[in-house]
Amino acid sequence: MATRGSRSEKVKRIFYQFDVNHDSGLNREEMAALIVAVNPRVKFSDEQINAILDEVFRTYGDFIDGEKGLTYEGLLRTYDDGAGDVDRDFDVLGLELSLDEVKGASMASEASSSSIVDEGVGESQKKQRTAAWAVSPNHGIVFDDTWKIVDDLEILVKRLKAKQAGSNGKVKGENLDSYSEAGWSRELGPSSEISEKRVYWEESGHDYALFVKELGVLRSRADGARSREQAFDGHMAIGRVLYEHQLFKEALVSFKRACELQPVDVRPHFRAGNCLYVLGRYKESKEEFLLALEAAEAGGNQWAYLLPQIYVNLGISLEGEGMVLSACEYYREAVILCPTHFRALKLLGSALFGVGEYRAAVKALEEAIFMKPDYADAHCDLASALHALGEDERRLRFPRASEMYTRVLAVWPNHWRAQLNRAVSLLGAKETEDAKKALKETWLAWFVLVPMKNT
């Protein structure tokens, strides 16, 4: 995943590539050119382009500079909100960062993630670090004292990690990849599509108890701030750092405290919902997302950027409770608000498949793949939906399903479920020898996977 610094540099290059009249804004014509260029496989109608532009200019109205159009900060916000994949778009456009830009991005990243308190840090460097975080209002830090808390917290986490690290220098589970992408849509930035590293902290030992005690001191510092707004800023930052280090139980405590301080702010409810979902507390997660949705709708355009994310995560929480039909409705709302949200389209298609709406599932999944051609999970679910279509399409569905599974395997060679489903599709298409070969490859993929998950 790109660092925050390199992401902003890439967005800047994309912005200036399409700012044809050099007025520091992307008008409707320039935005339309950008949308078409980064989606070369999609044949947009004029009506579709206008609908997307209307939504972008409405949702990001605070970033529209009159007739000039969407500012650089606005484009950066759209990527932060998951409306596009900046790395993919950058590659599709054939752009490259210069050595100076790479160096500058690296410096910005180091400044923004510094966890060592350096009394000699000058005011200009401090502002540079703050700007790297706060360029997106989604998770910006407002008060300087909050940065001191963040720096101290990073040191505590590093100390805990050093004490819990094994002989390989890693916390348990840190080197393992999960083999199922949850589709989790997060405010913090783009999630990895295929593998996401999971850390398992040992919570029963003395080291963890000491960490929690010292964390309590930092929380007390946040509570002792000069104003309610500063205390809120401190607890949100503490929660953000803890969440990034996958200390979800402790992050939840901080976000809950932030909810108490600012009950009508969407962000703490949204983040608390994320924590609760990861902890398997789906009903409570759903309730937090409903509170976030209520606050967002009451807040008007201020929280419009976050609405698609809330709808998506609310849908996922409902699926966790087994309420798949209800989840479909929220995924649809997310797609209506953000038609280029490929994760929402994929989740909608998968949910529709789960309730037996195979044709609708195929349509949604195909749109998700148009938006992100290397989306392995979407390819796999599309193949499954094609496979499940009625008998009247028997002659067409097996070969096409097999093709979809083959595409999954090109992106994700050890995806044993795709390999197994491909074998079944080949068998249905009367290609017996190829089916036998695919079954053998399934077993090979499975035996590769098992040792990796148990190391």
Number of strands: 0
Query: Structural class, judged by helices and strands?
Result: mainly alpha
The residue-averaged pLDDT reads 75
Determine the N-to-C terminus distance: 24 Å
Helix % is: 55-70%
Overall form = globular
Low-confidence stretches: 1-5, 99-138, 174-196, 446-455
Give a short account of the largest sheet: none
**What share of residues are in beta strands?**
under 5%
Radius of gyration: 23 Å
Number of helices: 21
Question: N-to-C SSE series?
Answer: HHHHHHHHHHHHHHHHHHHHH
Provide key terms for this protein.
mainly alpha, globular, single chain
Detailed description of the structure:
The protein is mainly α and 455 residues long. It is built from 21 helices and no strands. The protein is globular and about 60 Å long.
What is the secondary structure topology, with strand pairs?
Blueprint: H1 4-18, H2 28-37, H3 46-59, H4 72-80, H5 86-92, H6 99-113, H7 123-134, H8 144-164, H9 206-223, H10 228-244, H11 248-261, H12 266-278, H13 282-298, H14 307-320, H15 324-337, H16 342-354, H17 358-371, H18 376-387, H19 394-411, H20 416-428, H21 432-454
Helix pairs in contact: 1-4, 1-5, 1-6, 6-7, 8-9, 8-10, 9-10, 10-11, 11-12, 12-13, 12-14, 13-14, 14-15, 14-16, 15-16, 16-17, 16-18, 17-18, 18-19, 19-20, 20-21
